[in-house]
Fold:
Amino acid sequence: MLVVDEDGHILYYNQAVTQLIGIKPGDGDGRLVTDFLPALEWEKLARLGFRRGGTRVARHEFEVEYPRPRFLRLYAAPLDGEARGRSGLALILHDATEARQKTYEAIESERIQALTLLAASVAHEIGNPLNALHIHLQLMERQIRKLKSQKSPGRGARGQAGPAQR
Structure:
């Protein structure tokens, strides 16, 4: 958890934040939150009306590279609630790396299943005409064998002498 004033200066942060975004104890007091979270869209949060009070909670996801690459989910809520004052925001950070990885794996699994189904369907659709061609070729081969067997050796199809007997 981070507490920042209306200009984005850090007023308070807990031990979990030091591990999550790499703030050293005592190093973050009074510094801009964007110094530690450059991907945080501070101006966007400020435009949501937090400087004028209100009860809206904003949710934002972004990636950080330091101290190690991970995805963070941020919930921002005004500290003054309904009151019209300038007290800042409470920023709750949550490491969403594992959840995002599971989501990515689920999407990949669905893609693989869809591709497998598509490949099976295509194979089936190609297989049917190929099987029909194979069956017709077998029938033609049988007819050719039958025609060859009906011809007597040395005689033509109508009983005439073949070229070797003339």
Summary: The first strand starts at residue 2 and ends at 4. The two ends are 108 Å apart (CA to CA). Residues 1 and 92 are 5 Å apart (CA to CA). Helices lie at 15-21, 33-36, 42-47, 97-150.
